Hints:
Layout: E1 2-6, H1 9-19, E2 23-25, E3 28-31, E4 34-38, E5 44-46, H2 49-52, E6 73-75, H3 79-93, E7 97-101, H4 106-119, E8 125-127, H5 135-143, E9 146-147, H6 152-180, H7 196-212, E10 217-225, E11 228-233, H8 252-255, H9 261-271, E12 276-288, H10 296-307, H11 311-323, H12 342-360, H13 398-413, E13 419-430, E14 433-444, H14 465-470, H15 473-479, E15 490-491, E16 494-501, H16 510-518, H17 527-533, H18 544-553, E17 557-560, E18 563-566, H19 568-576, H20 580-583, H21 585-599, H22 605-624, H23 642-658, E19 673-675, E20 679-682, E21 692-694
Parallel strand pairs: 1-4, 1-7, 7-8
Antiparallel strand pairs: 2-3, 3-4, 5-6, 8-9, 10-11, 10-16, 11-14, 12-13, 12-15, 13-14, 17-18, 19-20, 20-21
Helix pairs in contact: 3-4, 4-6, 6-21, 6-22, 10-11, 10-16, 11-13
Amino acid sequence: xxxxxxxxxxxxxxxxxxxxxxxxxxxxxxxxxxxxxxxxxxxxxxxxxxxxxxxxxxxxxxxxxxxxxxxxxxxxxxxxxxxxxxxxxxxxxxxxxxxxxxxxxxxxxxxxxxxxxxxxxxxxxxxxxxxxxxxxxxxxxxxxxxxxxxxxxxxxxxxxxxxxxxxxxxxxxxxxxxxxxxxxxxxxxxxxxxxxxxxxxxxxxxxxxxxxxxxxxxxxxxxxxxxxxxxxxxxxxxxxxxxxxxxxxxxxxxxxxxxxxxxxxxxxxxxxxxxxxxxxxxxxxxxxxxxxxxxxxxxxxxxxxxxxxxxxxxxxxxxxxxxxxxxxxxxxxxxxxxxxxxxxxxxxxxxxxxxxxxxxxxxxxxxxxxxxxxxxxxxxxxxxxxxxxxxxxxxxxxxxxxxxxxxxxxxxxxxxxxxxxxxxxxxxxxxxxxxxxxxxxxxxxxxxxxxxxxxxxxxxxxxxxxxxxxxxxxxxxxxxxxxxxxxxxxxxxxxxxxxxxxxxxxxxxxxxxxxxxxxxxxxxxxxxxxxxxxxxxxxxxxxxxxxxxxxxxxxxxxxxxxxxxxxxxxxxxxxxxxxxxxxxxxxxxxxxxxxxxxxxxxxxxxxxxxxxxxxxxxxxxxxxxxxxxxxxxxxxxxxxxxxxxxxxxxxxxxxxxxxxxxxxxxxxxxxxxxxxxxxxxxxxxxxxxxxxxxxxx
Length: 697
């Protein structure tokens, strides 16, 4: 008998259907020589400290650092998990061989390996590796099974990540809580994490930059000639934008400005009675490639900008679309496709044609474009970028439709030609003062003919606050079309001097914080540079959303409209941490890069764990040597007024009364309530949502 183990019941059902295992049993399907079972995510976890030594159960500075000689795993304390594991263990005990059908990623590999390790598997294990859950992909995957050992590096990287998080989290959390917290007084512990803490440091540092920012005045001299505004270029000042500050506090205006009002007034007096003369007209044609396909972080960023979705919400939505076979595997960190996907693209486009037919018409009758910026085997490791599968998308909720629409349109854009444009730069002078104006003209729209968003009521290309700041006056000027100018022409003009002040950096939003995590703290707009910096980002695409949510739950950060603000507790905690490796985004990014090298079998897991153990030991010594007797203050959430509390208590009762067929599922928030013979249920029951409400209770 061949035993297949999937990561979720819904995935198990899909695989069983394709394999012909149609007989349903408790915890598995059987038929056609296969038994298909499943996990519920993590059934196993690393052992608790007290599982190694009983004295480690008590929080004590004297017991730190806790470094087990050998790490072990345990089954989670959950009756449902234990019952399912018993089924898995029994099936695997009599298996001829096993097919690991877990999520095709680092975490999925770890989940399944731990279960098989706990079950004491001795038979051969093969690996199913698919990027979508369509019937075609599953059949193709089973036709090309490979030995599980081919993914040993991925398992070792996942194991090192888990051990690293245990070593740092367990030791540093206890250390800082006992040293600087208020343990035993109903106050939460001071949570420290390998990725969590550097991420918090980013938010804290940005808040300090804003708080310490001191605005500086500057003066911009402009003049209007032939209804075009020209900006003065003081001698010795930059005339381009190549060194623009990513935080948005250095602008083209500042670089083309006078430092003092006296200098500006003197220049104004010189030019106001002098004629304006055009000294040069330069035209340059350029091409703009379509925006890159989505990886998970890029999708989360875009959804936060356009729709205000949190990173966690976007992850849940795209995971649901994947499980419904509408999109490919979502937890990816590449924006490229492999060459073998290209022959399938026409079929995918035909699959989405009922909705996007008008956008596909220009692509008919000719081979699809194949760009190296899209199709590149060398840029794909585990999975390719997120794209639609071509399966018809029916009965989508509004939030699902928004996300699905972004993915489809981005996919279509990459088969359109580049956008062709012309940039015109006109320079002039008056009384020895140089002026400059630029304009951009779209010659051939190309991919820009495909709007980025077509969801009802959703504006296309809506910028977030930070992007809007960076692309304000100067960048908007680049988009204007200039009239025809001739070198040497001259005429009257209307100059003016405007006082402006430098602006502080913008607070992080979820979108910009995700980008900062991806690029080790560097706010990067350029797509090619961002791709290069990904190697040293912190966290994995699949975990960054959870990290941000953890910071909210720990009350280290809060949301102020779209902005993320560090709480006093978060600020104080980062202020106490002196060890760079605990809070430095750059250094933590290096550790993340080493995990990727472990996955590629280019770095030793033993060396990685050894370095972590040494780091933890050093941190303990350094913190214990601090005699400052400082404590972190913890601000509890504001008390809820009695009336408000009463109304909140009433809300669940009100929700019970309005549950009816067609309403949103109260459990998953995606599916719709359907009416059965004896109870209400969720329309996504095939996808794993088990919400059920009997008619009579």
